[in-house]
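User: Structure tokens for this complex, please. No commentary.
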Amino acid sequence: MTHTDTPIVRVEHVHKFFRRGSERLDVLQDLTLDVPEGEFLGLMGPSGSGKTTLLNLIAGIDSPSEGDVWVQDERISAMGEGQLAHWRTRHVGFVFQFYHLLPVLSAYENVELPLLLLGLSAARRREQVLNALDLVGLSDRIRHRPGQLSGGQQQRVGIARALVTDPVLIVADEPTGDLDARSAEEILDLLGAVSKSLKKTILMVTHDPRAARRADRILHLEKGQLVEQATVV
Amino acid sequence: MKLLSLIVKNVGRNLLRSALTALGTMVLVLVVTLVWSVLHLIDLVTEEKSHDVKAFISERWSVPSRLPYSYASSLCEGAARADHPEDIHPTDAMAWQFYGGTLDPKNPSMKSMVFCIACDPRKVPTMMSGLEGLSATEDAELHRSVERLLAKRDGIILGRNHLLALSQKSKDGKQSMLEDPLGRKFSLSGFSNFKGLDFDFEICGVFPPGRYDTLAVINRDYYNAALDAYPPSHAGVPHPMADRSLSLVVIKVDDMQAYNRVAEQITTSLRFQNPQVKCETESSGVGSFLDAYRDLLWIMRVPLTLACLGTLALVLANAISISVRERRTEMAVLKVLGFRPGQIMFLVIGESVLLGLLAGFTGAGLTYMTINWGFHGLSFPMGFFPVFMIPINALWWGVAVGTGAALAGSLVPALSASRVKPAEVFSKVA
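Assistant:
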């Protein structure tokens, strides 16, 4: 394990419910969780258990109904939409199951997208984009559009896009869910390398036990509550 | 800059949809441009000027106006009295005598009719409205035509429609008459009130396309000589038009103050009481004439324009809405990456505005080229205006209409895109 004991993410007594008409759906119930800096955390659980909702709350793309979420020393659960957007650009990198690259942009341009919001010079952006693409092994594919890349390569571009702003936290929602076994292994190797060499804190939601085994620690959620914690040796 | 590049790429994402939307926009811009071109010219001529005011003097109680030719010289002087130095003189003036003849006396039709203004040819470039904005080439050709007409008593400067009518009549073939009309001769036989006044003419020039497509100009001396020569061959009886051949006098004065003075000089002069004359500014005269078209012009100006703009906004709104619906996930991804709602709106509105701007400019440009260069004006006979040219300003109208409608049409889809909630979108995707 490469992480410290200092929690970078603190989830305190979080409730999250949705309303469907008059019905209230409790997705997360009184959930408390600390994630130390540098940890590669796997979140598992059946569908509807609240994994993705928890990930969204930690990543600042949703807000808890009750309770608080802290990342580093910032209480993101109290931020407004504009503040959260600003915060996400600088602090969180996202890796999606279906990559979600913009089809009209090249690999280079997709990775550059979050940097456009940071007001960096073109030279600095170029340097960071090329570094990120080099890190994921796609230096020779920078002009390719998503449609010209395999699923594994697209996900690598997705990971490069998540890393390019040098965020403190990487969240990955089923990053291997749409890949064949071999590509999935390559992506997991890459995430493992990112965690170890760059000391990034990674939160990964997965249904795949093989993927979860790459994490430093696995949390199981069921009906919105943590039911088991396992540390992978 | 990079966001603009993303906007451009998004426009090109679904080329078929973008092309169809652009095509719809161009068609509606064409309609708006045509309508506004007609209204623009009418607004221009009915707008009261503060300098170089033109005024029409015509018979007060009768339409068409028929005044004795003896009125002409004094009216051209604004009825200024020799012993009243304080009286105002017009800066320029022109007397019009209308003459109507037909190319085919056996079978007269509207197509074979030629309406002529008998006048002093030197006044054509300065006193005939609608000849002010000619290109240098057209202006030079007009002056050459006037010089030829001055030199040739039986000369005529024709409108383009007459040339077409002559081409159909000519045995030389259409092409040669259209391409090389100068020096060609033809005859006109007077019709209606002008019966008995027949003329042989030689073509001295052709008016530039536009306002004078259906009018011709001839030498007043040639026309008046024919009126003078009429009695000897008709048992000493003068032609019915002999003493009422003056249709109109057009004068130009410095400003409205001078106009008011001259109008007073003319209307109070005892010389012009039988028949009485009236004096009105050109804009007022044209405006009175166009009163008959008031309802039509209102329909063109308000409901038709609004309907076109509304339809255009709906076409664009529909296309952008579909595009936004298809790309909700993409909008959510942009939000997750840190794009703020305003930036998402900018992207969506930018896409629509770019499409509207390009389509509007192209639509107006094509309309300008097709109507002005291809058809030599929009044939929409209304009063003194047989055709309407598309003004160069139409290019900006196209841009403004396309952009404005795109902006209006994209506001709701852009707002919807900016309100996309990533958590909801991704829960549906998963």
